[in-house]
Amino acid sequence: MLAHADGLPHLAQRAKGGGTGLLRAGFVASAVFTRARSLYTKLSFGIPGIVTMWQEMNSAEQMAALREGKLDIGFAYLAAESEDLKSKVVFRDPIVVTVPEHHRFAKRRSIRLTELRDDDFVLPVRHLSPRFYDRVISACHEAGLSPTIPHQPRHMLSILSLVSMGAGVSFLPRSLAKAGFPGVAFLNIAGTTPDIELSVVWHPDNISPALRRALQVIVPLC
Q1: What is the distance, to the nearest Å, from the Cα of residue 200 to the centroid of all Cα atoms in its chain?
Q2: Residues near 22 by Cβ (< 8 Å), separated by ≥ 6?
Q3: Strand bridging mode 195-202 / 110-111
Q4: Residue 124 to residue 108: CA distance in whole angstroms
Q5: Backbone angles phi, psi at 80, to 5 degrees
Q6: For the segment 116-141, what is each residue's pLDDT rounded down to a tens digit?
């Protein structure tokens, strides 16, 4: 908190010259491996007069911060209960199965979900990523699988870490395969593949000039 406060005067001074101000932006780290990366870069360097202050948060944390006026814009996986916020879909990412590199199915290219009935799963706590969690569980139930979930970390990169250590298998956006994370394999889901939408999100009551400028640039690119 002290480091954050110490940096604000410097950021404010940088923004002052452009006459627009600070843009407080939230992001999910996993999205840097999607086309959202170019939007992150555009906000950081491509809007004269705006200084962007990035904060890594999971999707639920971003929704709360937008409602409380602590963020101006977010890049998140929306929940069904976010109708009070405005959003624009940036990217639709297919969901795949992730297994440890020494898993019995690691050499496969695709898998039926019922083949994982004897595996433990690593999934986020539902309230942190409700739409992702619900789509995964729905796909499991449609396939006749009731997953056992003993491990529930907060972030998707933490999920990858646990999978690589052999704690279990998981579901993750396919884009995370580009992270080059060691010790894991990504398998397509046979049949109908669920997906998850990453969206740019903001609160309609936020009158920040920096937000207005950012939306004029970002939304047409989505």
Answers
A1: 11
A2: 11, 12, 15, 50, 51, 52, 53, 210
A3: unpaired
A4: 25
A5: -60, -30
A6: 999 999 998 888 888 889 999 999 99
